[in-house]
Design goal:
CATH superfamily of the largest domain: 2,3-Dihydroxybiphenyl 1,2-Dioxygenase, domain 1
Structural class: alpha+beta
Shape: globular
Radius of gyration: 20 Å
Oligomer: single chain
Bound molecules: fe (ii) ion
Distance between the termini: 40 Å
CATH class of the largest domain: Alpha Beta
CATH topology of the largest domain: 2,3-Dihydroxybiphenyl 1,2-Dioxygenase, domain 1
Length: about 375
Amino acid sequence: MTEIPLRKIDHVRFFVGNARQSAFFYRNAFGFDVVAYAGLETKVRHEAGYVLKQGEITFVLASPLSGQHPESNRLVTHGDGVMDIALDVPDVRACYEEAVKRGAIGVRPPEAREDEYGVFETASIQAYGDTTHSFVNRDRYRGVFAPGFKPIDPERYQESTGRPVGLAAIDHIVANVEEGKMNEWVEFYRKVLGFTQLVSFDDKDISTEYSALMSKVVQNGTGRVKFPINEPAQAKRRSQIDEYLQYYGGPGVQHIALITGDIVKTVRAMRANDVSFLRVPRAYYDTLTARVGPIKEDLQELVELGILVDKDDEGYMLQIFTKPVADRPTLFFEVIQRRGSKSFGKGNFKALFEAIEREQELRGTL
Ligand code: FE2
């Protein structure tokens, strides 16, 4: 199927219970700048929104201002989570119409919103669960983010500038879907957006004593937009994917992987900001050099920070995962540095999933 021309991920929109406090978290813990605000003061009556930026990453945090907000039930069902993954496209109307023609369910038809800074075009389609994909085009828009948003007022929100930790771009965004649904969603991305399947992992790759999952990765033609899709697989006990589906109340975004050019520096800075990461046992590092060969980083630093390494034919990569960022065991983040490798960390799955299971054990959800 011909690809729908996507330039890149424009932004990720989170729907949260308290956007003001979430903005504080992503600024102080993850080092984002808070650059724009929408709310009562900017004549937006139904919700508050904060736009955060670091490198090429844009996050939008939104909270309803009353129970009348059409999406307010999301918070009861899902807790905080990703509502929309917005894709930057050259022609919103053409993308939307083509996507719907190919079977996508339209959520919001194309609209051109205008203010004194120009025209901002957007439309959206349904993805897995309650998640949506917006198509956005800001070629004719010079404002700070979108109509309704104003640059942050330093009087109102002091020290809007974070201390960047070196996060540069989004590498991939992972979906958890119900058992038996992974292939349907792979088909959706192939058919509707013209993505291709990159790799697949089955339960033999990704099973530990207790839990198992299957995963396939789809990407757009340029490889700039990568979406792995997980489903739970049968195992002795409950998969981490089942735990997610229960607490998120259905399919949704499991993790967002953020690229850094210097993972040691980034993780050190995030730890200093009190971000909690998953730890693998010390024994993981005993076989590391034998498994991945020579690496540029200092092994002792990787051990100290708990950074994982994997390799493929093209090079190696370093990665680490935060613990869930809200109370529910749902959304978490990955920090990743690629040194040639296009891998998603298959060689780390076992150690990593055992670490997740230790957390599940504590939560009584294994
Ligand atoms: Fe990942």
